[in-house]
Amino acid sequence: MQFRTPIPISQSSHSIDYNSKIVSLGSCFVENMGEKFNYFKFENIINPFGIIFNPVSIEKIIYKTINAVLFTEEDIFFYNERWHCFDVHSDLSNSNKEDLLASLSAILESTKQQLQEASHVIITYGTSWVYRNIESDAIVANCHKVPQKQFKKELLSVDESKESIANTIKLIHSVNPSCNIIFTISPIRHIKDGFVENQWSKANLISAVHSVLNKEHYKLHTEYFPSYEIMIDELRDYRFYGEDMLHPNQVAIDYIWKRFKETTISEAALATIDEVESIQKSLSHKPFNPNSESHLKFESKLRDKITKLEKQYSFMKF
After folding, report:
1. Domains, in order of start, for the chain
2. For 126-180, what is each residue's pLDDT tens digit?
3. What single DSSP character describes residue 49?
């Protein structure tokens, strides 16, 4: 008997291997997947500008990056003893204005190079709900706990999201025409917006992404991975959620990664993944007797394994 409904996922036309260079952008779920890439020692950059949830804000930061539009004093503001920028996450906020601007400029420069060199960009959208700053009339990526009266909450329409997604693809391909872009919708439920409103938001994102990806001139280097659908259909049980009942727990994250690995990671990379995992588990091993002969032999073999992999892949560091 079959007790779940597995989602059929097509094999990727541009699979990821250990020669791939990956840039992951978007909601906090992209960080869950990015941590998997890091654990298995792929060459991966995760959210250089911090977590960003909506298509418009992701497009805006990629536009600044690709076109080298530097941040200026007009782009930042002082609140609660720190300098912030509405276009990036509060993790980048700084108590020093000059340090914030210098940091943002450095990230712009490094991210442009990473996008130019990337074989794959993974973009995860979290929500269609956005906040528009009333004073500037601009959609923000992060409100930085500024009073809500300074913003107007809006739902991006399917057409507005479609335009942003299409622009994002064009921007990336303007500097890297062969880059494969994988889109996915975050399975994290944004219940603060409301139960019906969360579904409305996800529906708009799903409609927008597929409307763009189904256009003939975008099909060659774009793909969709059904993270949201796996969570809703294959893992339709609260035992796959964290304590907040909103975020996927580690079992769910591991399962979604398994489906991703089966369909998007090349077969040639699987042996290396297993080798890396073996090393990672060995590194976390706590010996009963660190000075014993058996443990010293264990450490010697482990060092040999690490040396072999680091020679084969110069970017790997354990």
Report:
1. 21-267 (3.40.50.1110)
2. 999 999 999 999 999 999 999 999 999 999 999 999 999 999 999 999 999 999 9
3. T
